[in-house]
Structure formats: structure tokens, C-alpha cells
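User: Please predict the structure of the protein below. I'd like the answer in C-alpha cell form so I can feed it into my own downstream comparison script.

Assistant: Understood. Taking the following sequence of 456 residues as input:
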Amino acid sequence: MKAKKASQDKQYFLKNTEGFLFTHLFASGSIQDKLVDLLKCDAEIRPVSLSIELLSGIRDHGKSIVYINRFPDKFPGKTITLFPLKETRSAAKKSSLKYDELLIRLFEPVGSNISHVLSVEQSGFNAEIKTVDLKNFPVENDHLTPCIKYHLIIEDKDPIIVSQYMNERLLDSLSVSFLGKELVGNILANKNSVIEFIRDINKRFQLSLISSIESAESSKISISGTGDIQTDPAKLNLEELRLAPDTSIRILLDTCTRKQMPVKTFVFAVKGMSEELRAKFMSNMSRNRRNEVRDGMRIWEPEASEIMQAQKELAWVIIELGEKHEIKISKRLQRQLEAIIRGIDNALAARAEKYIESDQFGSSISEINNVILQLLIRRVPRKVLIPALSVLKDNTSRKISYNMTEYSWEILKEDIKHWDRGIEDKKEKITSAAAAQQAVVRTAGLIKREFARSAF
């Protein structure tokens, strides 16, 4: 028991944000798509943890399939990925492949993904698959290294636990690419040094990603009438969703389905996304939905205005979920949503104030005869009637009081005072009053039509 605890103490489990670069490189949407195509069923690679372990720790895995991924010469280094032998062979049968062919074809996109992220040419792809006894696996320059744990999830099968270790040359390549310097000293001999190194390159990667997101003008959706002034509408940048966790994307997809968003609208919205964001969406869809979207993208050729309109509809779903805090999003996207919601509140308050000042409610009440007004007062729910009557002109107030008993009118006035004291925000008060008055006017219209029909 003590030995097990000591082993755990050597590990440091990174937070999702700290391991963002690594999971982005080795569990990308292109790999998810490849896995689904190979297995012809719903399947995914889900990162579980990123820990700091000794490279020699691979010897503790028993008999496994060892997959060595060597990257292009301009990006030297390799990863050593361990797959359980029995489970991986069983999974390969679903695609009628040998396990070595399955893994080579599955991880081919990793090389191109790294080349894309680091802007280097992919001059070749070299992989070696073999089954070995890990107790005798040779380890050169044993040191601490990041180890990503994945679940390879395949339909109708238990998750396959995959471990991926990175060698020193790969980490050195990342250091040169993101920090502009080679690994020096004994960085990989000290746990805290490795953690700081990973945090540094991860931060640089996120900054470069944020920069590309900010420059994606085509994905910034203007939400009309929500800015501080009409000429400056609030904007929602859909590309910010590239930083959102997969669970948030799945909630967004489920909400679109629940709201019965038309397939064509959803396809247009996805087609207008960047390749990276589209891959993130596709990797979180079921196989049937993914095929449906792909077919739609192949068949339909939307105009730019149709894409913009479709993405606006998607943006409103995001705004709704963000307002209810049902999805986890970046602080940057949260600020955008808050600006939009604030703009919506301001726009509603401005329209409500204009409605109250125009006294449209008083005009409507003045056209109603006393019989209909008495019926209206009884039919409208108290929670609607109170805010509706909280803002009245004198002549409207007199007409309503005339059609109520003195006792009922006094009770109503007390209720209105109580409601008025309970709401401190002036905008909220005016918006609620205007909405309630409009509801009362609609009810009055219904009662009028009922009287008209009963006259024949």
C-alpha cells in the first residue's frame, strides 16, 4: 500500500488548460474522423490525464503493443504509445485490419497535425509497430517526461486505456518551436522544471491560437441592436469555441437538436466555420449526424448571406446556454456573451421606455367599454396585472379604479407598492411593466373577439 502511494507521489496531473497543446496535437479532430472511418462505428479518443512520469515507467505496463511515431526530419523526436495487446487486436477486427495496420493508419494524421500547428513541412512519415516484453524495453537517458493517458472508446466495447510517452528530442523540438531555445541543463530531471516547461510552451501555443482566433473576421457574428450604439453591434466570435471543452460542444449540439434547428441551417453554420472548429464539431457528433452533415456540405452550396444567417441562429443558442451557465467557455467568449446580453437588456429597456412614454396602454384601455374592462381585470393573472398597472397616467388609473370595488383597488395599490419596492433595477422595472401591459392589451383583444363571435 505504501509502495503504491509513493509511486503516485511521483506523478503530477496537469489541468486541462495546462495540457491543452498535447491533447490538441495527439487527440485532434482529424484523428477522431480517421478512427470512425476505420471502425465504421461511433468511436473517439478521449484524453483522460497528462502526468509527469519517468520514461522507464513504460516497463510497468506488461505486454503491450508498442507504437513508435517518428516525426518528420524538420521536427525531430518521437512518441512511444502503448496499447493493450488483447483489446487492441479485438478492436482491429471491427475494421478487418491487423492491429499494426489499424494503428499506423489511425496515427498518420498526428504527423500532419504537428506539421500544421508548428508550420513545418512534412517531409515524411515513419512508424514502427511491434509487440515486445516491456520489462526488457530499452530506455535511453531515463528522465521525467509528459505522459498522456487516453481512452480509446469504441462502440459496444469497453474503453481501451492508451499511454503515450514523449522522448527528449520531441520535447526539445517543442522548446525550439515555441520558446525559441533548446532544452538546457537538467530540466527533465526535476519534476517542477518539467511542469514549468510544459506550462510555458502551452501558454505560447494558446497565445498563437488566440491570435489566429482574433484575426478570424469571417467568424465574428454581429448581433444587431445589441451594441451600445446602433452602429456598433456586439459581436460573437464563433472561433472562440475552439478553446471550449468537448462537453460544452456536445451540449451545444444536443440543444440544437432539441430546438429542432433545421438540418440545412446547421449544415450552413458548420460549413462557414474554420477547418479547425469544424473538425471539433464533427468529432463530437454521432456517426449518423456526422454523415448527415457531410452529405449536406457536399450537396448544398450556400451563399455568404445564408451562412451568416445560419451562424447567427447558432450564436443565439450559444448566448442562451451561456446566459444560463450551462456550458463552460473561455473568459474571452464569456465577456463577448456578457456584452451581447447587456446590449439586449439595454435595447429591451429602451423599447420598453419608449412604449411606456407613448402611453399606448392608456389608449388601448380608453377604447375598452366597462364590461370588457371588468372581465379583463378578473381574467388577467395577478402577477401580470400588478406590473402592468405600476406605471399609469391619471386618466387610465381613474378608469380602472372606477371598474373595481374600493377595497379591491386599495389592495391592488398596496400590492403594486410592494412589487415596486422589490425591484431596485430601473431597467428591469420598466421592461417588466411594458411586457405586462402588452400582455394585458393582447388579452383584451381576445376578449373583444369572444364578444364579437357571441353576438352572432
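That's the full C-alpha cell string. The chain has three domains: 12-212, 223-348, 359-454.
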